[in-house]
Every structure is written in structure tokens, then in C-alpha cells.
Amino acid sequence: MLRIRCPWCGERDEVEFRYRGDATKLRPAGDADLAAFAAYLYERDNPLGWHVEWWLHVAGCRQLLKLVRHTLSHEIHAVLAPSDEVSLPTAEARR
Amino acid sequence: MPAAPDTIPTHSRSERESSGGYSGWRLLREAITGHRGWSRAWAKPAPRPRYRVVIVGGGGHGLATAFYLATQYGITDVAVLERGPIGLGNVGRNTTFVRSNYFHPQNIRFYEFSLQQWEKLEQTLNFNAMVSQRGTLNLFHTEAQRDLFTRRANQMRLLGVDAEAVSRERVKALVPLIDLDNGRYPVLGGFLQPRGGTVRHDAVAWGYARAASAAGVDVIEQCEITGIVRDAKRVKGVETTRGFVGADIVCLAVAGHSSRLAAMAGVTLPIETHVLQAFVTEAVKPVLDVVLTYGPSHFYVSQSDKGGLVYGGGLDGYNTYGQRGTLPMAEELAASAVTLMPGLARLRVLRQWGGVMDMTMDGSPLITRTPVDGLILNGGWCYGGFKAIPAGGITTAHLIATGAPHPLAAHMGLERFASGHTVDERGAGPYPYAH
Ligand SMILES: Cc1cc2nc3c(=O)[nH]c(=O)nc-3n(C[C@H](O)[C@H](O)[C@H](O)COP(=O)(O)OP(=O)(O)OC[C@H]3O[C@@H](n4cnc5c(N)ncnc54)[C@H](O)[C@@H]3O)c2cc1C
Ligand SMILES: [Zn+2]
């Protein structure tokens, strides 16, 4: 069971939240080619390790949060606002 | 814990035949003579430095691919490299349902072909896989759900596959313990595929391993792939915990780990890894003779031959490589179970486990070439790849042997994403956790 410390509501159970996927994917510029859009829409690093991801606090403040979570231990390193800068726990962390 | 590589007993190729044929007569003879005549079901060779085909992952799909390569395509210079023992991956962790009740014609044809292979699997493999066509019954609880199932059933029937609409009364006759008028989601009826059912999962792994080994394939356990060696264009082989193994073709069949293995070759896949849990109760007398799925929540249940009720549901909800599962889903499934069949509240849950799976961006699998020549991928099975094992094995073997996709799996290529030809049964869009 995850306990997520929402910056607005405090620590809550995972059942109040909905996972919304990889937060490192940025929409390409409008004139980017098809391959760039396909990669944005479909390709995922899917790391075993630290993952930067969106969660929506559906049953709370309904804010979108940016989490840094480990995909094996489930440890949560940081819970951030969408525009916050992310710093990963270690240098080798993204893969 | 895996044994250190050098302590693993190895057996010569001539010992392959030693397990002999299995039959009722053999069982009787062995029973009379104290069961002393049985021997190891598959050989345990050490890896050779080079093979024509190396298959990574000794789950259902890897072993089936090797078996059909050897028996249908005449390619026996094949090794299956498995990091643990055979049968501990998802092939031994699933809830064992087999069916072909899909909606998209490509999927119906593929899974129906698979179901037809299950129907004769025991003869093909000479192994009792306990194939039980007890029927799969999907319940509906709203008119919209009924329309959706009717559309699916009609689509199946157009392609010559069995599907029936079932009244409330017949649901009650098929599932006497059901509470049709449960407070929240009264059952309006069901959608039955009589030929669906269950297959003993471990037996599928063991049966394919034994048959592939007998056909000349090296099934090598305790051999983890740690790197993929390639040049600018082509795959050259794999680095393993037991040394480098060269190969003309490397086929990945590693279920929840496809992204990690593909990354070793510099390939990024349209996959996210998620965990699915399963639960088994204590054993009771026969109470349920179909595979039952409940409409309002994601919940399905069947009774094993030992008597335990085997049940499961949806994903835990967020990506993970943790093969365990968390409590909110355990609670939700228990709630579903007792809403559907209140009597189940009396049972105790004996065991729970999880398996990590490739969830693709459209919910459909991948049997495909990759941007690296000679690197083939069988993966992306989501929560439905057990039923696909025979067809997955045959069509992957076809792709390896001929270099061209099998017609039944032509829609499973990687290129479908960029070209807009995704096959999305649920119409959920590019959200792997939503399929
Ligand atoms: C709880 C649960 C219930 C399910 N229920 C059903 C169901 O009812 N019906 C259905 O059709 N499907 C079901 N599935 C899905 C089905 O089990 C899988 O889609 C299918 O088994 C995957 O293919 P496989 O058998 O080849 O996988 P696996 O058995 O997982 O094989 C992959 C193998 O690759 C090995 N491997 C991984 N990395 C490496 C490496 N680096 N080197 C060497 N080897 C490696 C693993 O150890 C593993 O043995 C379920 C899955 C789960 C988890
Ligand atoms: Zn909040």
C-alpha cells in the first residue's frame, strides 16, 4: 500500500489517487515529424528503478502531482507540483 | 535461490529420450513396479558457444516457439535460455483461462487458432495438460453491457466460433451459488463460450519443455541474459551468466521484462510493466463448473481440480516490477467475490501472488521483427498471453523460420503504432494501464 504525501492535502492512501503514466514525455512541436509523435505517444523507457510519473489526486484536491517512485521497491522519493524540477536520487537512476 | 552455474548437473544429448512415452498403460506399469522407471522429463545440457536460434525466456511462449521450430519448421539448432527454473514466470502464475471470445476479427482468428491447438495439445505433446472445456461465462448487468456482449458474440459467430447468449435462469442453473439480485448490480444474463475453459498451467510449461527437449532443443535453466551483442545492423548473440552465446537469430520471450531486454539492444518498446495478482481459497467440494467473469468490477473466478476457488481481477494500477501486489486490490476482489456469490464469504484465502506483465499501448501483443536485424520479439501479452501460448509459439516460429509474419499474427507488428493500425479491444487509447 502506497502512502502519498500530497503537497496540498498531506499524507493519504494510494486509493485516493490515480496513476497517469510517465511524466518525462513532452509533446513535440507542432511541426515535428511522424516518428517524433509516435515516440511521444507510444514509446516508454519503462525502467526498473526510479520513474518520474503523473498521479491525479482524484478523491482529494484533484491536483495533478509529479512523483519520483521506484518501480521495484515502490519507495517514493518526491511528490511535486507539475512544474517543479525533478532531481533523481542517484546519477544512474533513470534506467 | 538459483544454484551456482558450475554446480548444475548436465546430461548428454543421448539422454533426451529417456523419459519415454507417457500413457495410462505406462502409469499402470510404473504403479505396479514402484514408480522406479520414471526419469528426468527434459535434458539439462550446458550452453554451447553458438546456436542458429537463441530464445530468451523459458516461459510458455519461449518453450512453445522452440518446440514448433523443431517440429514444424525443422530447425533444431535452438537453445532456450531461462534465468530461473522452468515454470516460475507468468506461465506458472496465471489463472489458466483459455478462450477465443474477442471482438476484433484478427484477434478472434488468432485466439481461435490457439484454442484449436489446446483441444489437441495433449496428443501433440504426449503430456496431460488437463485441458478442461468447461465454458467461460461473462455476466452482464446493464443493457449497454448486454449490447456490447451481443455485438461480440455476433462477431464471433460470423467467424464460425461458438458463442451463446444466456438467460438469467440459465445463469442460475450454471452457477447455483450466484446472487442474481445482489443489491447493486443485478445479473441480467450472460455470454457463454462453451469451448472456453482452463488448462493446467505448470503442465503446459513442463509439457512443452519435455517435448522441445525430445525434439532436439537445448532447454537451459539458470542462465540469465545480461546483454545483447549487436553490430550497427544485426544481432550477434547474447551475454549470459554462463558466458557468451552466439546466434543468427535472438528471440525475446520474457513476458514482463521485454522493455529491459530490448533496451539491451538499444530498442525502446511501446510497453509499460504492471503487476496482476491471483488468489486461491481453501478447497471445497465442486461448487462452480464454469469460468465466471463478473461485469461491474473486474473479477473472474473458477474452481481448480483440487477444489480451491482461483480468482483475480485487474491490474494494481501503477507500473511496477515488484512480483507481489498490494492490499487495495485484495480488498476489492474479496468484495466482488461476496457480492457475486455471498456464500464465498465463508472461505479462507490460502494463497496470493503476483506476476509482472508487459502492458502494451493498445492492449494487443507483439510478435514482430525489431529495428535490429535478427532480433525477434514475442511479448506484450498483457494479462492474456496464457491462452495464446500454442498460437504464439507457432506464429513466432514461423516468423523466425521464414522471416515473414505468419498471416494469423500479421497485425502484431511493432510498426502498427506509428502507422495507426493499433488493435485496441477496449478502445481505451494509448494508456497501458487502462487495457
Ligand atoms: C496473475 C495472472 C493471471 C493471469 N491469468 C491469465 C489467464 O487466465 N489467461 C491468460 O490467457 N493469460 C493470463 N495471464 C497472462 C499470462 O500468464 C502471460 O501473458 C503469459 O504467461 C506470458 O508468456 P510466458 O508464459 O512466455 O511468460 P513467462 O512464463 O513469464 O516467461 C518469461 C520468462 O522469461 C524469463 N526471463 C526474464 N528475463 C530474463 C533474462 N534476462 N534472461 C533469461 N530469462 C529471462 C523469466 O524468468 C520467465 O521465465 C495472467 C498473468 C498473471 C500474472
Ligand atoms: Zn491532494
Describe it:
The complex is a heterodimer of chains A (95) and B (435). With 95 residues, chain A is mainly β. Chain A has a domain at 1-25 and 47-83: Folate-binding fold (2-Layer Sandwich). Chain A is built from one helix and six strands. The two termini of chain A are 24 Å apart. The mean pLDDT of chain A is 93. Chain B is an alpha/beta fold and 435 residues long. Chain B has two domains: 44-93 and 201-270 and 362-434, FAD/NAD(P)-binding domain, CATH 3.50.50.60; 134-195 and 273-360, D-Amino Acid Oxidase, subunit A, domain 2 (D-Amino Acid Oxidase, Chain A, domain 2, 2-Layer Sandwich), CATH 3.30.9.10. Helix content of chain B is 27%, strand content 25%. Flavin-adenine dinucleotide (FAD) is lined by residues 56-62, 81-84, 89-91, 93-97, 224-225, 253-255, 257, 261, 276-278, 312, 355, 357, 381, 383-387 of chain B.
Kindly list the characteristics that best describe this protein.
heterodimer, A: 95 residues, mainly beta, Folate-binding fold, 4-stranded antiparallel beta sheet, two-stranded antiparallel sheet, 6 strands, globular, B: alpha/beta, FAD/NAD(P)-binding domain, 8-stranded mixed beta sheet, 25% strand
CATH superfamily heading of the largest domain in chain B: FAD/NAD(P)-binding domain
Task: Give the helix level of chain A as a range of percent.
Answer: under 10%
Q: Biggest interface in this structure?
A: A-B, 29 and 25 residues
Poorly predicted regions of chain B? 1-15
Q: Specify the number of helices of chain B.
A: 11
Content-based structural category of chain B = alpha/beta
Number of strands of chain B: 18
| Each distinct ligand | flavin-adenine dinucleotide, zinc ion
CATH class of the domain at 1-25 and 47-83 in chain A: Alpha Beta
* Count of discrete alpha- or pi-helical segments spanning 4 or more residues of chain A: 1
Question: What share of residues are in beta strands of chain B?
Answer: 15-25%
- Could you state the order of secondary-structure elements of chain A as H and E? EEEHEEE
SS content category of chain A: mainly beta
